[in-house]
Structures are given as structure tokens and as C-alpha cells.
Design brief:
Purple Acid Phosphatase, chain A, domain 2, globular, 29% strand, alpha/beta, nine-stranded mixed β-sheet, 403 residues, 12 helices, single chain, six-stranded mixed β-sheet, 31% helix
């Protein structure tokens, strides 16, 4: 083999080895997982006499599984029958099963619908998530055990990231003993963060349910609490609830990074009006740089909810719309493609005009290096022969849960 080719391969091998050895942990944050009545009915499979939500998340499985920890807001209860949508949600267990099978690792549960089915709904939701080995925080079956289970620690390669979850309220439906729901209470939060810092965390993320519904920008309440979080040393704030996208801000002062995603918007719902029919995923990576852990990747990925009719029945799919923008033939109805394009154009305009140092990412730009794929590509160019493409294996992510 020619010496120059050998040199190229050796350099690639060195770079790949260096990348593999680097200490890094990656996240994907997703917005509101809703369960409106039409969604429940669409998941019913009459021939099998059971519910199945697998098609909802299938277009995103590769993206979700490409990170170490995928986190979403479960804005329904899993309280059992009767299954209903708005205003007091209870979805079939199979919704959580589909979340798990798509690659989601964590579902935060503190939101304004946490108490929709009162204590029974809180308890049963947690039981279902535990049975599926889905990590969670935000609501608790037993208030006296809350402190031990409140902070969720997600770790990999020596990097420890803490996750806390709070909501502004529960639609006026109170919780009672023995259950507990994390509310936006400055005294409680201060205590939680002080306790979290005792765990020798590298980074602390707060996933918070806040803001005004259908508003494109954060309100004064969000800004007030965001400043409060920053003052307490929180590193990342991720928001949900408005059901539309709000800006993402990154800043670095005196070497300290701070980032806020004010609202991810809807991940999946039956809301079909403009701005409500989709949202963004937020992909984030931390990398160990000497003794410090820094943000190594930060980007948003727009997603759009495709609702369509097939065989006289509605179906739902969450699409990474930048990818499907170039695949108009995928849509049986051109108007659906046009609606997705409107959503994407408006979302890009909104975020690119108002974000601070956060840009759009490539949907299938994996956070982990795949050496076999890269080397196959190099060798194919050198030899100019056909090579069977390497199929990306869907990996089950490794990492720590609670201490």
C-alpha cells in the first residue's frame, strides 16, 4: 500500500483513539409528551386489542439512542383506566413503554398535570416507570423519602451530572400525604441545591415547568427564577410548559458557563395550530478538560408532529423536520409537508434571531465517534470499491442512576 495512504490511516487511527479516550457525557432534552384523546384512540390496535405507541417515536430512535442520557417531560399520568386526555390526563402504560423502547432514559414528572388523578395517579405513574427501569424525578410516592430520591445523578466516564425537577403548580389540584410534588419554592430549591452540591457534582441541571402558555418569550416569572438558579450555581436550566418554543441562551462569565432553554415546546401532542405543532430537542455534551468539565456541544434540533390518516385512522409521528425537509415524497399529503416547512421556517427565524450563542444542529450528527464507519469510508475512497455499509447498532446506554 502506498506510504501516503498508510500515513492517512495511521493519523485517523490516532485521532479516533484520542477521541475514544476522552471523557465526555452527552444528553438530549425533549419537551412535553402529551396524551390527548385523539392520541390515545390512535394508539389502539383493534386487531391486537391493545395499545401501541411505537410508531410515534420511531423516526427519532437513532437520534435518541445516540446520546448517553435522553430526558423528556412526561406531561400525563399513567393512572390506569379510564384513559382520557385533556383536562385530566391518564394515558396507557404503553406510552411509557414506547418511550423506553425509543431510547429515552429519564422522564421528569413534575408539571401542572402531575396531580390530574390525585395521589393514585402520582403513585401509579411512578410504579409504571419503575417497572420499566425508566429513571425519574419530580414527583414522589412517599414524602419522607423525597430527599433521598430527589436528586437524580447521571454519570459516565467519571463525569457526574445532577438533575432536579420542579413545576410552578398543579392546576389547583393539591397533593397530600404520602405523596409529594416538587413546586417552584425558593426556600425548598435553595435547600435542594445545597444538598446536591454535597455529592461532588461536575454539573447541575434543573428541568423546570414554568412560563405562560403559547408565549414566544419568557415572562418575568421565568426570568426571576432563572436569575435565582444562576445565583445558586446551577449550570443548565431546561424549561417546558408554554407548548411553544422559546429562546435558548448561553453565557460565560469569569470562566463560569450558564445556559437556559426557556421552553422546548411540544414534543408530541394533538395541538395542531402553528407554533404548537412541534418543538425542539436540545442536545448537550460535557467534556472533561483537565480538572474542569465544560460544555463541548450545544445545539437545537427542530421536531414536528406529523398527524396523518392511513386506513381510515389517525396516526402520529415525531419527525426531525430538517431531515424530512428534503424528502417531500415521504408525505402522502403535500399540505402536511407544507405545514412542517412553515413550522421549521418560523422556528429557525425565531431561534436564530433570539438565541444567544446556540445554533441548529444536524439531526443525525452523532455525538459518539463510530470508527468502523469512518474507516470504511476512507478505505472505500482509497480502493474505490463497494463496501457493505456498517449498520449502526442501537446501543442501550450505560451510566449511573441515583446514589
Amino acid at each position: 500500500m502506498h506510504k501516503s495512504i498508510l500515513k492517512i490511516i495511521s493519523i485517523l487511527c490516532f485521532l479516533l483513539a484520542s477521541s475514544i479516550k476522552s471523557q465526555e457525557i452527552s444528553f438530549l432534552f425533549m419537551g412535553d409528551i402529551m396524551g390527548h384523546g385523539p392520541q390515545i384512540r390512535s394508539a389502539w390496535q383493534e386487531n391486537k386489542k391493545q395499545y401501541d405507541y411505537s410508531e410515534v417515536f420511531s423516526p427519532l430512535e437513532d437520534i435518541i439512542s445516540s446520546v448517553d442520557f435522553a430526558v423528556a417531560n412526561l406531561e400525563v399520568t399513567l393512572a390506569g383506566k379510564p384513559f382520557r386526555g385533556y383536562p385530566q390526563f391518564s394515558s396507557p402504560n404503553e406510552l411509557a413503554v414506547a418511550c423506553k423502547n425509543s431510547g429515552m432514559d429519564v422522564l421528569v414528572t413534575a408539571n401542572n398535570h402531575s396531580c390530574d388523578r390525585k395521589n393514585k395517579g402520582i403513585i401509579r405513574t411512578i410504579d409504571v416507570l419503575d417497572s420499566l427501569n425508566i429513571l425519574h424525578t419530580g414527583t414522589f410516592k412517599e414524602s419522607e423519602k423525597r430527599e433521598a430520591k430527589n436528586l437524580l445523578i447521571l454519570s459516565k466516564e467519571g463525569i457526574k451530572v445532577g438533575l432536579l425537577n420542579y413545576t410552578y403548580g398543579t392546576n389547583g389540584i393539591p397533593f397530600s400525604e404520602p405523596t409529594y410534588v416538587n413546586l417552584l419554592d425558593s426556600v425548598l430549591i435553595r435547600k435542594d441545591i445545597i444538598n446536591a452540591r454535597k455529592e461532588d457534582l461536575d454539573k447541575l441541571v434543573v428541568f423546570v415547568h414554568w412560563g405562560s402558555e403559547y408565549r414566544d418569550f419568557p415572562n418575568s416569572y421565568q426570568k426571576k427564577y432563572n436569575n435565582f438558579f444562576q445565583g445558586l450555581g446551577v449550570d443548565i436550566v431546561v424549561g417546558s410548559h408554554p407548548h411553544v418554543i422559546q429562546p435558548i441562551e448561553y453565557s460565560k462569565k469569569n470562566g463560569q458557563e450558564f445556559m437556559t432553554v426557556f421552553s422546548l415546546g411540544n414534543f408530541v401532542s394533538n395541538q395542531r395550530e402553528e407554533r404548537k405543532d412541534g418543538g425542539v430537542m436540545f442536545r448537550l455534551s460535557f467534556k472533561k478538560n483537565g480538572d474542569n468539565v465544560v460544555i463541548s456541544r450545544k445545539e437545537y434540533i427542530p421536531v414536528w408532529v406529523h398527524k396523518f390518516i392511513d386506513k381510515e385512522k389517525y396516526h402520529y409521528q415525531v419527525l426531525p423536520c430538517a431531515r424530512y425537509l428534503y424528502n417531500e415524497k415521504y408525505f402522502s399529503n403535500k399540505s402536511d409537508f407544507d405545514k412542517m416547512k412553515i413550522f421549521l421556517d418560523n422556528s429557525r427565524k425565531h431561534l436564530n434571531s433570539n438565541n444567544l450563542d446556540v445554533v441548529e444542529g444536524i439531526p443525525y450528527g452523532y455525538t459518539r465517534v463510530r470508527p468502523a464507519v469512518i474507516l470504511n469510508s476512507v478505505i472505500q475512497e482509497i480502493r474505490n470499491v463497494d463496501i457493505i455499509p456498517v449498520k449502526t447498532k442501537k446501543r442501550r446506554k450505560k451510566g449511573g442512576g441515583r446514589n
